[in-house]
Design goal:
This protein is an alpha+beta fold. The chain has ten helices and twelve strands. It folds into three domains: about 150 residues, Sensor histidine kinase RisS, periplasmic domain (Beta-Lactamase, 2-Layer Sandwich), CATH 3.30.450.300; about 80 residues, Helix Hairpins (Orthogonal Bundle); about 150 residues, Heat Shock Protein 90. The chain has a five-stranded antiparallel sheet. The chain has a five-stranded mixed sheet with strand order 7-9-10-12-11, covered by helices on one side. It has a two-stranded antiparallel ribbon with strand order 6-8. Helix 1 packs parallel to helix 3, helix 1 packs antiparallel against helix 4 and helix 7 runs parallel beside helix 8.
Length: about 450
């Protein structure tokens, strides 16, 4: 079983794309319905209009060629090309003819044109590699091709072009509307993330629709209230630390000066030390980790110091595998407290079975590249471990699994402090049983 801190979710971008896609689908369906309706209603009138235009052009061109003098036909053909975009070519048996577009509208146009010009009228979309709207006609026994520029014929292609332009404009409008809708939520999410990281965000602008103004006003009030709570808590913590530890110091002095047996003196001193340690744990758990205090921390050097300090205990054997450098952004004091708590937890509860010595392995590595680079820290002991079903309870405040890890003094806040500090650093904590026995803590930090 593994316990992992959740990563921050990118809610704003997901909501933006969801809104954008919904608006895009609505726009596309509306455009499709409009195009289908216009195509259905206008198909017959458009087919009749286009067929009449084609018949008129062919008829006039054939009449002009038939009644013009032979020596003037060349000038007439040149004028038709220059002014009307109409070209006339002699039809040859070896012409390469492409079939006309296969659509319902074109089929209606061809049927109407053949009814006027004759059943042997041919149509093509390309003749001898020249694209256009080609129609055949006869003058006596001679056959000709008449080519019209496609721009002269209004059809669904032009409609599709305009529909495409309208669709692009609609999609840009949908993107703009989605951005405007999600902008207040984006600001709110960014401000909430700053609070989660221990920073004080700038007040949200109380402008816009009534709902947005009310939400931003309430959020700003909440931020001010939290700031006041943090200030009050700092004062309270300072008072607790002074008011509780001062009597403990007097008690310690009185014990030293009192005429007591050595056994009684050591017992009272142990109780006072235990009370002082419990107070320190409470204060550490309640103390916030300010993101403004984050600096460049070399985790390799920090772990080396922690391993050296842990190795001073006679009942601890530390093995460290550390890289040359492993830099992260964080609070050096709090990160050192995290490692110290994990080492102390292993020293108290992770003794190697059959031995009075606690074997602790500390490993550090840097993985990934560029923005995905991570510093992985592993702290593990060689003890008996924890039942799989109880691992998730280890990080809860005031929880000590004495039945699995042995009895010891403390308030059950050591691992809760680890969890709290790492969450402030946006780090991931994974707790699992070590293969071969013992408990393993894996910390993943974003590398610099």
């Amino acid at each position: 079983m593994k316990f992992r801190l959740p990563r921050p979710a990118s809610l704003t971008s997901g909501l933006f794309w969801r809104t954008f896609l919904l608006l895009s689908v609505l726009t596309t369906l509306s455009m499709s319905a409009w195009f289908g309706m216009v195509n259905y209603v206008q198909r017959e009138p458009l087919a009749q209009q286009t067929a009449a235009q084609v018949v008129s052009v062919v008829t006039i061109t054939r009449a002009a060629l038939t009644h013009s003098a032979t020596d003037l036909r060349r000038e007439l053909l040149f004028e038709l090309v220059s002014n009307e975009g109409i070209r006339v070519f002699t039809m040859e048996d070896d012409d390469e003819v492409a079939p006309p577009p296969s659509s319902g509208l074109m089929a209606d146009i061809q049927s109407l044109v053949r009814a006027k010009l004759g059943a042997d009228t041919r149509f093509s979309s390309e003749v001898n590699g020249v694209p256009g709207y080609w129609v055949s006609f006869k003058i006596a026994d001679d056959r000709y091709w008449l080519m019209l520029e496609r721009e002269r014929l209004q059809g669904p292609v032009e409609w599709l072009g305009w529909a495409g332009v309208v669709s692009v404009v609609s999609l840009l409008g949908a993107a703009l509307i989605s951005s405007l809708i999600n902008l207040p939520l984006k600001r709110l999410t960014a401000a909430a993330r700053e609070i989660a990281q221990g920073r004080h965000p700038e007040p949200l602008p109380e402008v816009g629709p009534q709902e947005v103004r009310q939400a931003n006003r309430s959020f700003n009030q909440m931020v001010d209230d939290l700031q006041q709570v943090e200030s009050d808590r700092a004062v309270i913590l300072a008072g607790i630390s002074h008011d509780l530890r001062t009597p403990l110091a007097r008690m310690q002095l009185e014990v030293e000066m009192a005429n007591l047996s050595q056994e009684a003196r050591e017992g009272m001193q142990s109780d006072i030390a235990q009370m002082d340690a419990i107070i320190a744990q409470f204060l550490d758990y309640a103390k916030p980790t300010e993101a403004s205090s984050f600096i460049n921390v070399d985790m390799a050097a920090l772990l080396a110091d922690c391993a050296h300090e842990a190795g001073r205990h006679a009942d601890v054997k530390v093995t460290a595998e550390l890289p040359e450098h492993a830099h992260v952004l964080g609070n050096a004091t709090d990160l050192k407290r995290v490692i110290a708590n994990l080492v102390e937890n292993a020293r108290r509860y992770g003794k190697t079975p059959g031995s009075e010595v606690t074997e602790i392995d500390i490993k550090c590595s840097v993985r990934g590249m560029h923005t995905a680079k991570r510093v992985i820290v592993e702290v593990q002991d060689h003890g008996v471990g924890v039942p799989e079903g109880q691992i998730a309870q280890l990080l809860k405040p005031f929880t000590r699994l004495d039945t699995a890890r042995g009895q010891a003094n403390g308030a059950g806040l050591g691992l809760a402090i680890v969890d709290r500090v790492l969450s402030r650093h946006e780090a991931e904590l994974e707790v699992s049983n070590r293969e071969g026995g013992g408990l393993k803590f894996t910390i993943t930090l974003r590398a610099l």
